[in-house]
Amino acid sequence: MIFFSIWTRLTQRVMQAQLEQTVPTPWYAPALLAGGAFTLTWWRVAWALPLLIAATALDRYRLEMAGAGWRIEHFAFVGIALAWLLRTRPGLKQFHFARADAWLAAFLGVAVTTSWLHAPRLSESLKFFGLMCFGVLMFGFFRAAGAHAKDFTRAVWALIGVGVAASAFGILAWLLFPLGINLGAQTYSLETFETFSAYGTLFDSNTLGMFAMATALLQMTLLLDAQFARWRVALGVGIAVTLLAVALSLTRTAWIGLAVGLLLIFLFSPRRRWALVFGGAALALVAGALVASSALAGGGGALADFSAARLLTSQSVFFRLESYARAWQGFAAQPLFGNGANVFAQKYTTAAGTRDWVSNLVLLTLHDTGITGLALLGGWLASLGVATGRALKRSGSLRPFLLALTIAYVSLLVCYLATSVFWLGWNWVYLGLLAAGNIAANDASTVDEN
Question: Which of 195, 279, 299, 340 could lock onto 303 through a cystine, CB 3.0 to 4.6 A?
Protein backbone atom coordinates (compact mmCIF):
# COMPACT_ATOMS: atom_id res chain seq x y z
CA MET A 1 0.00 0.00 0.00
CA ILE A 2 2.85 2.36 0.84
CA PHE A 3 4.57 1.51 -2.45
CA PHE A 4 1.31 2.18 -4.35
CA SER A 5 0.99 5.60 -2.69
CA ILE A 6 4.59 6.49 -3.58
CA TRP A 7 4.10 5.31 -7.16
CA THR A 8 0.86 7.32 -7.53
CA ARG A 9 2.50 10.51 -6.34
CA LEU A 10 5.48 9.96 -8.64
CA THR A 11 3.31 9.36 -11.71
CA GLN A 12 1.30 12.49 -10.91
CA ARG A 13 4.51 14.48 -10.96
CA VAL A 14 5.51 12.87 -14.26
CA MET A 15 2.17 13.94 -15.77
CA GLN A 16 2.76 17.44 -14.41
CA ALA A 17 6.08 17.38 -16.24
CA GLN A 18 4.15 17.22 -19.52
CA LEU A 19 3.48 20.92 -18.94
CA GLU A 20 6.70 21.88 -17.13
CA GLN A 21 10.20 20.76 -18.03
CA THR A 22 11.59 21.11 -14.51
CA VAL A 23 9.51 20.00 -11.54
CA PRO A 24 10.36 19.68 -7.83
CA THR A 25 10.80 16.09 -6.80
CA PRO A 26 10.66 14.20 -3.50
CA TRP A 27 13.75 12.39 -2.28
CA TYR A 28 12.43 8.97 -3.26
CA ALA A 29 12.05 9.70 -7.00
CA PRO A 30 15.81 9.49 -7.74
CA ALA A 31 16.02 6.41 -5.54
CA LEU A 32 13.20 4.71 -7.47
CA LEU A 33 14.75 5.59 -10.84
CA ALA A 34 18.22 4.39 -9.88
CA GLY A 35 16.84 1.34 -8.08
CA GLY A 36 14.60 0.37 -10.98
CA ALA A 37 17.48 0.73 -13.45
CA PHE A 38 19.70 -1.36 -11.18
CA THR A 39 17.08 -4.10 -10.84
CA LEU A 40 16.42 -4.37 -14.58
CA THR A 41 20.13 -4.41 -15.43
CA TRP A 42 20.86 -6.98 -12.72
CA TRP A 43 18.07 -9.15 -14.09
CA ARG A 44 19.24 -8.81 -17.72
CA VAL A 45 22.71 -7.34 -17.95
CA ALA A 46 22.34 -7.22 -21.74
CA TRP A 47 19.76 -4.47 -21.22
CA ALA A 48 22.33 -2.07 -19.77
CA LEU A 49 23.03 -0.05 -22.91
CA PRO A 50 19.47 -0.14 -24.32
CA LEU A 51 18.08 1.10 -20.99
CA LEU A 52 20.58 3.94 -20.81
CA ILE A 53 19.89 4.91 -24.42
CA ALA A 54 16.18 5.10 -23.61
CA ALA A 55 16.94 7.30 -20.58
CA THR A 56 18.89 9.79 -22.71
CA ALA A 57 15.83 10.23 -24.95
CA LEU A 58 13.89 11.57 -21.96
CA ASP A 59 16.05 14.67 -21.44
CA ARG A 60 13.01 16.95 -21.48
CA TYR A 61 12.17 15.86 -17.95
CA ARG A 62 14.33 17.27 -15.18
CA LEU A 63 14.03 16.72 -11.48
CA GLU A 64 14.76 19.73 -9.29
CA MET A 65 17.00 18.71 -6.40
CA ALA A 66 19.75 20.47 -4.42
CA GLY A 67 19.47 23.57 -6.58
CA ALA A 68 20.07 21.76 -9.86
CA GLY A 69 17.95 20.20 -12.59
CA TRP A 70 18.83 16.50 -12.79
CA ARG A 71 17.77 14.43 -15.78
CA ILE A 72 16.46 10.90 -15.73
CA GLU A 73 19.62 9.67 -17.44
CA HIS A 74 21.73 10.77 -14.44
CA PHE A 75 19.88 8.53 -11.98
CA ALA A 76 19.50 5.69 -14.49
CA PHE A 77 23.25 5.75 -15.14
CA VAL A 78 24.04 5.22 -11.47
CA GLY A 79 21.85 2.12 -11.22
CA ILE A 80 22.81 0.68 -14.62
CA ALA A 81 26.56 1.22 -14.24
CA LEU A 82 26.61 -0.22 -10.72
CA ALA A 83 24.65 -3.34 -11.74
CA TRP A 84 26.84 -3.83 -14.83
CA LEU A 85 30.03 -3.54 -12.80
CA LEU A 86 28.81 -6.03 -10.19
CA ARG A 87 27.50 -8.52 -12.75
CA THR A 88 30.37 -8.45 -15.26
CA ARG A 89 33.29 -7.59 -12.93
CA PRO A 90 35.35 -6.13 -15.78
CA GLY A 91 39.12 -5.91 -15.66
CA LEU A 92 41.01 -2.69 -16.29
CA LYS A 93 41.73 -3.74 -19.89
CA GLN A 94 38.00 -3.83 -20.70
CA PHE A 95 37.77 -0.07 -20.28
CA HIS A 96 40.13 0.33 -23.27
CA PHE A 97 41.91 3.46 -22.08
CA ALA A 98 43.74 5.17 -24.95
CA ARG A 99 46.44 7.82 -25.11
CA ALA A 100 43.95 10.24 -26.65
CA ASP A 101 41.91 10.03 -23.44
CA ALA A 102 44.59 12.20 -21.85
CA TRP A 103 43.54 15.01 -24.21
CA LEU A 104 39.96 14.76 -22.99
CA ALA A 105 41.12 14.73 -19.37
CA ALA A 106 43.31 17.78 -20.04
CA PHE A 107 40.34 19.55 -21.63
CA LEU A 108 38.29 18.98 -18.48
CA GLY A 109 41.23 20.23 -16.44
CA VAL A 110 41.33 23.46 -18.44
CA ALA A 111 37.56 23.90 -18.07
CA VAL A 112 37.55 23.57 -14.28
CA THR A 113 40.70 25.64 -13.75
CA THR A 114 39.57 28.58 -15.85
CA SER A 115 36.14 28.40 -14.23
CA TRP A 116 37.78 28.67 -10.81
CA LEU A 117 39.74 31.71 -11.97
CA HIS A 118 37.16 33.65 -13.98
CA ALA A 119 33.57 32.51 -13.33
CA PRO A 120 31.33 35.21 -11.79
CA ARG A 121 29.37 32.43 -10.06
CA LEU A 122 31.61 29.45 -9.54
CA SER A 123 28.77 27.20 -8.41
CA GLU A 124 26.99 27.65 -11.76
CA SER A 125 30.16 26.79 -13.66
CA LEU A 126 30.75 23.74 -11.50
CA LYS A 127 27.22 22.52 -12.23
CA PHE A 128 27.93 22.68 -15.95
CA PHE A 129 31.35 21.12 -15.41
CA GLY A 130 29.56 18.22 -13.71
CA LEU A 131 27.43 17.85 -16.85
CA MET A 132 30.61 17.70 -18.93
CA CYS A 133 32.11 15.04 -16.66
CA PHE A 134 28.91 13.01 -16.90
CA GLY A 135 29.16 13.04 -20.70
CA VAL A 136 32.71 11.71 -20.52
CA LEU A 137 31.62 8.99 -18.07
CA MET A 138 28.85 8.02 -20.50
CA PHE A 139 31.41 7.76 -23.28
CA GLY A 140 33.67 5.51 -21.22
CA PHE A 141 30.81 3.28 -20.16
CA PHE A 142 29.48 2.78 -23.69
CA ARG A 143 32.99 2.10 -24.99
CA ALA A 144 33.57 -0.54 -22.32
CA ALA A 145 30.12 -2.17 -22.28
CA GLY A 146 29.67 -2.14 -26.08
CA ALA A 147 33.08 -3.37 -27.20
CA HIS A 148 31.86 -6.88 -28.00
CA ALA A 149 30.16 -7.38 -31.36
CA LYS A 150 26.87 -8.64 -29.93
CA ASP A 151 26.60 -5.83 -27.38
CA PHE A 152 27.54 -3.25 -30.00
CA THR A 153 24.95 -4.34 -32.55
CA ARG A 154 22.26 -4.62 -29.85
CA ALA A 155 23.02 -1.06 -28.77
CA VAL A 156 22.80 0.31 -32.32
CA TRP A 157 19.43 -1.40 -32.85
CA ALA A 158 18.29 0.01 -29.50
CA LEU A 159 19.39 3.48 -30.59
CA ILE A 160 17.28 3.10 -33.73
CA GLY A 161 14.27 1.77 -31.80
CA VAL A 162 14.42 4.57 -29.24
CA GLY A 163 14.83 7.16 -31.99
CA VAL A 164 11.76 5.91 -33.84
CA ALA A 165 9.73 5.79 -30.61
CA ALA A 166 10.75 9.34 -29.62
CA SER A 167 9.92 10.53 -33.14
CA ALA A 168 6.49 8.86 -33.04
CA PHE A 169 5.76 10.50 -29.69
CA GLY A 170 6.81 13.86 -31.13
CA ILE A 171 4.42 13.38 -34.05
CA LEU A 172 1.62 12.51 -31.60
CA ALA A 173 2.39 15.66 -29.60
CA TRP A 174 2.18 17.71 -32.80
CA LEU A 175 -1.19 16.17 -33.71
CA LEU A 176 -2.72 16.70 -30.27
CA PHE A 177 -1.45 20.23 -29.64
CA PRO A 178 -4.23 21.96 -31.68
CA LEU A 179 -6.77 20.00 -29.58
CA GLY A 180 -5.48 21.59 -26.38
CA ILE A 181 -3.38 18.62 -25.25
CA ASN A 182 0.31 19.47 -24.85
CA LEU A 183 2.51 16.38 -24.78
CA GLY A 184 5.54 18.37 -25.90
CA ALA A 185 5.11 21.22 -28.38
CA GLN A 186 6.31 24.80 -28.49
CA THR A 187 4.98 27.86 -30.29
CA TYR A 188 6.90 30.20 -32.54
CA SER A 189 5.64 33.74 -33.19
CA LEU A 190 6.42 35.55 -36.42
CA GLU A 191 4.85 38.98 -36.80
CA THR A 192 1.36 38.22 -38.15
CA PHE A 193 1.01 34.55 -37.27
CA GLU A 194 2.13 31.85 -34.86
CA THR A 195 3.27 28.31 -35.67
CA PHE A 196 4.11 25.41 -33.41
CA SER A 197 6.55 22.54 -33.54
CA ALA A 198 6.96 19.33 -31.57
CA TYR A 199 9.67 18.23 -29.20
CA GLY A 200 7.98 15.31 -27.41
CA THR A 201 10.32 13.77 -24.84
CA LEU A 202 13.39 15.71 -26.00
CA PHE A 203 14.70 19.02 -24.65
CA ASP A 204 13.25 21.22 -27.42
CA SER A 205 12.24 21.11 -31.08
CA ASN A 206 15.82 21.49 -32.27
CA THR A 207 16.86 18.51 -30.16
CA LEU A 208 14.01 16.34 -31.49
CA GLY A 209 14.84 17.36 -35.05
CA MET A 210 18.51 16.40 -34.71
CA PHE A 211 17.72 13.21 -32.75
CA ALA A 212 15.25 12.08 -35.42
CA MET A 213 17.58 13.15 -38.24
CA ALA A 214 20.44 11.02 -36.92
CA THR A 215 18.10 8.04 -36.45
CA ALA A 216 16.82 8.41 -40.01
CA LEU A 217 20.37 8.36 -41.36
CA LEU A 218 21.22 5.26 -39.31
CA GLN A 219 18.28 3.42 -40.85
CA MET A 220 18.92 4.64 -44.39
CA THR A 221 22.51 3.40 -44.30
CA LEU A 222 21.48 -0.03 -43.05
CA LEU A 223 18.56 -0.27 -45.47
CA LEU A 224 20.91 0.08 -48.43
CA ASP A 225 23.09 -2.82 -47.28
CA ALA A 226 22.17 -6.28 -48.59
CA GLN A 227 22.91 -7.74 -45.15
CA PHE A 228 19.64 -6.24 -43.87
CA ALA A 229 17.32 -7.23 -46.71
CA ARG A 230 14.83 -8.93 -44.39
CA TRP A 231 14.56 -5.78 -42.27
CA ARG A 232 13.77 -3.42 -45.15
CA VAL A 233 10.06 -3.07 -44.44
CA ALA A 234 10.65 -2.28 -40.76
CA LEU A 235 13.49 0.08 -41.60
CA GLY A 236 11.38 1.75 -44.28
CA VAL A 237 8.58 2.41 -41.78
CA GLY A 238 11.11 3.75 -39.27
CA ILE A 239 12.62 6.06 -41.87
CA ALA A 240 9.17 7.46 -42.71
CA VAL A 241 8.43 8.12 -39.01
CA THR A 242 11.76 9.80 -38.30
CA LEU A 243 11.72 11.90 -41.46
CA LEU A 244 8.22 13.11 -40.58
CA ALA A 245 9.46 14.05 -37.10
CA VAL A 246 12.37 15.96 -38.66
CA ALA A 247 9.91 17.86 -40.84
CA LEU A 248 7.44 18.64 -38.04
CA SER A 249 10.19 19.82 -35.70
CA LEU A 250 10.64 22.77 -38.11
CA THR A 251 14.36 22.63 -37.32
CA ARG A 252 16.31 24.07 -40.22
CA THR A 253 19.59 22.91 -38.69
CA ALA A 254 18.37 19.31 -38.76
CA TRP A 255 17.33 19.72 -42.39
CA ILE A 256 20.85 20.87 -43.26
CA GLY A 257 22.36 17.96 -41.32
CA LEU A 258 20.04 15.57 -43.16
CA ALA A 259 21.23 16.96 -46.50
CA VAL A 260 24.86 16.41 -45.46
CA GLY A 261 24.06 12.85 -44.36
CA LEU A 262 22.30 12.07 -47.63
CA LEU A 263 25.32 13.35 -49.53
CA LEU A 264 27.57 11.03 -47.49
CA ILE A 265 25.25 8.10 -48.17
CA PHE A 266 25.36 8.97 -51.87
CA LEU A 267 29.17 8.96 -51.77
CA PHE A 268 29.73 5.81 -49.71
CA SER A 269 26.70 3.58 -50.29
CA PRO A 270 26.79 0.93 -53.04
CA ARG A 271 23.19 1.87 -53.95
CA ARG A 272 23.60 5.59 -54.54
CA ARG A 273 20.38 6.27 -56.37
CA TRP A 274 18.42 5.52 -53.21
CA ALA A 275 19.99 8.54 -51.55
CA LEU A 276 18.19 10.64 -54.17
CA VAL A 277 14.90 8.87 -53.36
CA PHE A 278 15.35 9.56 -49.65
CA GLY A 279 16.25 13.16 -50.42
CA GLY A 280 13.10 13.62 -52.48
CA ALA A 281 10.95 12.11 -49.73
CA ALA A 282 12.55 14.35 -47.11
CA LEU A 283 12.02 17.44 -49.25
CA ALA A 284 8.36 16.56 -49.79
CA LEU A 285 7.82 16.02 -46.04
CA VAL A 286 9.52 19.31 -45.15
CA ALA A 287 7.40 21.18 -47.69
CA GLY A 288 4.27 19.47 -46.37
CA ALA A 289 5.16 20.35 -42.77
CA LEU A 290 5.65 24.00 -43.68
CA VAL A 291 2.34 24.17 -45.51
CA ALA A 292 0.51 22.36 -42.70
CA SER A 293 1.98 24.61 -39.99
CA SER A 294 1.11 27.69 -42.03
CA ALA A 295 -2.45 26.47 -42.58
CA LEU A 296 -2.91 25.82 -38.86
CA ALA A 297 -1.54 29.30 -38.18
CA GLY A 298 -4.21 30.85 -40.36
CA GLY A 299 -2.33 31.18 -43.62
CA GLY A 300 -5.57 31.31 -45.57
CA GLY A 301 -5.10 31.66 -49.30
CA ALA A 302 -1.45 32.59 -49.02
CA LEU A 303 0.00 29.33 -47.73
CA ALA A 304 3.07 29.60 -49.92
CA ASP A 305 3.88 33.06 -48.60
CA PHE A 306 3.40 32.00 -44.99
CA SER A 307 5.47 28.85 -45.49
CA ALA A 308 8.29 30.81 -47.10
CA ALA A 309 8.20 33.35 -44.28
CA ARG A 310 8.52 30.58 -41.68
CA LEU A 311 11.42 29.06 -43.59
CA LEU A 312 13.32 32.24 -44.38
CA THR A 313 12.71 34.34 -41.27
CA SER A 314 15.97 35.71 -39.97
CA GLN A 315 14.81 36.56 -36.44
CA SER A 316 16.43 33.53 -34.82
CA VAL A 317 19.48 33.98 -37.04
CA PHE A 318 19.95 37.54 -35.76
CA PHE A 319 19.70 36.32 -32.17
CA ARG A 320 22.41 33.75 -32.87
CA LEU A 321 24.68 36.28 -34.55
CA GLU A 322 24.37 38.63 -31.57
CA SER A 323 25.37 35.80 -29.24
CA TYR A 324 28.27 34.86 -31.50
CA ALA A 325 29.55 38.46 -31.45
CA ARG A 326 29.47 38.52 -27.63
CA ALA A 327 31.14 35.10 -27.47
CA TRP A 328 33.93 36.26 -29.77
CA GLN A 329 34.50 39.33 -27.62
CA GLY A 330 34.70 37.13 -24.53
CA PHE A 331 37.15 34.82 -26.27
CA ALA A 332 39.29 37.78 -27.38
CA ALA A 333 39.53 38.88 -23.74
CA GLN A 334 40.82 35.43 -22.62
CA PRO A 335 42.10 33.75 -25.80
CA LEU A 336 44.44 31.15 -24.33
CA PHE A 337 42.31 29.39 -21.69
CA GLY A 338 38.90 31.02 -22.00
CA ASN A 339 36.45 32.33 -19.43
CA GLY A 340 35.16 29.16 -17.75
CA ALA A 341 32.36 26.66 -18.20
CA ASN A 342 28.94 28.19 -18.79
CA VAL A 343 30.19 31.72 -18.01
CA PHE A 344 28.44 33.13 -21.08
CA ALA A 345 25.04 32.19 -19.61
CA GLN A 346 26.02 33.92 -16.36
CA LYS A 347 26.75 37.21 -18.11
CA TYR A 348 24.06 37.51 -20.78
CA THR A 349 20.33 36.95 -21.14
CA THR A 350 18.08 36.56 -24.18
CA ALA A 351 15.29 38.93 -25.22
CA ALA A 352 12.91 36.61 -23.36
CA GLY A 353 14.86 37.07 -20.13
CA THR A 354 16.35 33.56 -20.06
CA ARG A 355 20.05 32.78 -19.83
CA ASP A 356 21.75 33.15 -23.20
CA TRP A 357 23.63 30.34 -24.91
CA VAL A 358 26.29 30.08 -27.62
CA SER A 359 24.75 27.64 -30.08
CA ASN A 360 27.94 27.16 -32.12
CA LEU A 361 30.10 24.40 -30.61
CA VAL A 362 33.39 25.90 -31.82
CA LEU A 363 32.62 29.37 -30.49
CA LEU A 364 31.29 27.98 -27.22
CA THR A 365 34.47 25.97 -26.70
CA LEU A 366 36.65 28.97 -27.57
CA HIS A 367 34.74 31.23 -25.18
CA ASP A 368 34.80 28.75 -22.30
CA THR A 369 38.23 27.10 -22.67
CA GLY A 370 40.09 29.20 -25.25
CA ILE A 371 42.41 28.01 -27.99
CA THR A 372 43.89 25.42 -25.63
CA GLY A 373 40.53 23.81 -24.92
CA LEU A 374 39.49 23.81 -28.57
CA ALA A 375 42.79 22.19 -29.57
CA LEU A 376 42.41 19.49 -26.92
CA LEU A 377 38.77 18.69 -27.64
CA GLY A 378 39.27 18.94 -31.41
CA GLY A 379 42.34 16.72 -31.22
CA TRP A 380 40.43 14.11 -29.25
CA LEU A 381 37.56 14.11 -31.76
CA ALA A 382 40.04 13.91 -34.63
CA SER A 383 41.77 10.90 -33.03
CA LEU A 384 38.40 9.16 -32.74
CA GLY A 385 37.74 10.00 -36.39
CA VAL A 386 41.09 8.53 -37.48
CA ALA A 387 40.47 5.34 -35.50
CA THR A 388 36.99 5.06 -37.04
CA GLY A 389 38.41 5.53 -40.52
CA ARG A 390 40.84 2.68 -39.95
CA ALA A 391 38.11 0.41 -38.63
CA LEU A 392 35.89 1.18 -41.63
CA LYS A 393 38.61 -0.10 -43.96
CA ARG A 394 38.12 -3.56 -42.49
CA SER A 395 35.35 -5.57 -44.12
CA GLY A 396 32.95 -7.50 -41.96
CA SER A 397 29.42 -7.71 -40.62
CA LEU A 398 29.95 -4.76 -38.26
CA ARG A 399 31.05 -2.33 -40.94
CA PRO A 400 27.49 -1.21 -41.95
CA PHE A 401 26.70 -0.35 -38.31
CA LEU A 402 29.92 1.61 -37.92
CA LEU A 403 29.39 3.39 -41.25
CA ALA A 404 25.83 4.31 -40.23
CA LEU A 405 27.05 5.75 -36.91
CA THR A 406 29.80 7.69 -38.68
CA ILE A 407 27.45 9.27 -41.23
CA ALA A 408 24.93 10.15 -38.52
CA TYR A 409 27.54 11.70 -36.24
CA VAL A 410 29.27 13.74 -38.94
CA SER A 411 25.82 15.17 -39.75
CA LEU A 412 25.29 15.96 -36.06
CA LEU A 413 28.62 17.78 -35.91
CA VAL A 414 27.47 19.94 -38.82
CA CYS A 415 24.30 20.71 -36.85
CA TYR A 416 26.38 21.66 -33.83
CA LEU A 417 27.82 24.59 -35.77
CA ALA A 418 24.41 26.27 -35.45
CA THR A 419 22.59 24.40 -32.66
CA SER A 420 24.88 22.53 -30.28
CA VAL A 421 23.65 19.89 -27.84
CA PHE A 422 27.15 18.48 -27.45
CA TRP A 423 26.92 18.12 -23.68
CA LEU A 424 23.60 16.28 -23.61
CA GLY A 425 23.83 12.59 -22.80
CA TRP A 426 22.69 11.16 -26.13
CA ASN A 427 25.55 12.92 -27.97
CA TRP A 428 27.96 10.86 -25.88
CA VAL A 429 26.01 7.72 -26.68
CA TYR A 430 27.02 8.21 -30.32
CA LEU A 431 30.64 8.93 -29.43
CA GLY A 432 30.81 5.94 -27.09
CA LEU A 433 29.30 3.60 -29.67
CA LEU A 434 31.73 4.83 -32.32
CA ALA A 435 34.64 3.98 -30.01
CA ALA A 436 33.07 0.63 -29.08
CA GLY A 437 32.42 -0.14 -32.74
CA ASN A 438 36.07 0.50 -33.59
CA ILE A 439 37.18 -2.00 -30.96
CA ALA A 440 34.56 -4.59 -31.92
CA ALA A 441 35.31 -4.30 -35.65
CA ASN A 442 39.06 -4.60 -35.11
CA ASP A 443 38.61 -7.61 -32.81
CA ALA A 444 36.29 -9.31 -35.31
CA SER A 445 38.77 -8.69 -38.14
CA THR A 446 41.62 -10.15 -36.07
CA VAL A 447 39.57 -13.30 -35.36
CA ASP A 448 38.77 -13.67 -39.08
CA GLU A 449 42.43 -13.32 -40.02
CA ASN A 450 43.43 -16.01 -37.53
Answer: 299
